[in-house]
Amino acid sequence: MAVFDFFKAREREIPEQKASATGPVLAYHGAGRVAWSPRDTVTLTRTGFSGNPVGFRSVKMIAEAAAALPLVLQDKAQRFDTHPVLNLVQSPNPAQGRAELFEALYGQLLLTGNAYLEAVSGEAVVPLELHVLRSDRMSLIPGHDGWPVGYEYAVGGRKHRFDVSEGVPAVCHIKSFHPQDDHYGLSPMQAAAQAVDVHNSASRWSKALLDNAARPSGAIVYKGAEGQGALSADQYDRLVAEMEAHHQGARNAGRPMLLEGGLDWKPMGFSPSDMEFQKTKESAAREIALAFGVPPMLLGIPGDATYANYQEANRAFYRLTVLPLALRVTAAVADWLSQFAGEALDLKPDLDQVPALAAERDAQWARVARADFLTMTEKRRLLGLPVLAEDGADG
Where on the tree of life does the source sit, at the highest rank (predicted)? Predict the structure, then answer.
């Protein structure tokens, strides 16, 4: 009984803590490891990005387009031309500029569903440098209430822990929506994993077909002088050796075959299933592009006429894929950096400088300018511009 009394006394000594009611029931299965099982991050990246041209081009197109968007920094009163946070974003570290940093950030988010940005503190209020950390090396450490208290970055046998339980966190974790994981995001690469396997298998099949003179295998039929259909062991071994030496491989493609008496070559034609194999590969390529939100027309995938022309497909690519991703990531980065600066800042893409949206933007400006029933303050808000002090009387 004394043991139970001891634990009851300890429970009475613990002060009350404020926390979310759902915190204690958050899932712990993702802590300390990648969220994908059995498809781990390294394998998906190797097969879907490094080893697949459709996945590679999809990730590169989205990351490069989103990183190339001009960014503006503003608060509720003004748009800044110079600001410590803006200077940090433009030159985040000695090895990378703004575009390189954000391309790596978007790439990690697309490949793994998670992106981590590290702040290196200096003497100034804002961080001295910003660095993108590899998602496959990072693991989240949950606290007793289920929310993150730290992040562990492992390289080889060495580990470094980032404590985010107090003060401004040194790591900004951006993740995609995952319906079955409380701590890690879901990558488009995981959704496209089966299509990637099909596409890679089709590529290997095509490569094997090219190695085999770009046609299906045939059959060598032997009929002896007296009608017997069996070769001796020595004859069989010699025939196999000559076939391997002189009639297999890409360098022997098209070489005529010299058959001795009794041997006849019977080529085999393509079956209907063989003829449909290329269509299966193109279908898998469209599924990969669909998972990432890239119009197949922009990737040169045949058989897709969803958009009337290339310009319309490019505009849809920016509207439906690039801009939502860029707005979400820049908003998370702005909220994180605002904690360092001590003021509410808004970092977002400048839509007026995106060539793909120029026609839509011009039409919006003209439509708002003709709206005489709107005040100048309301017009600026509709266009996403900060309200000027002299316009306060109009509101």
Answer: Bacteria
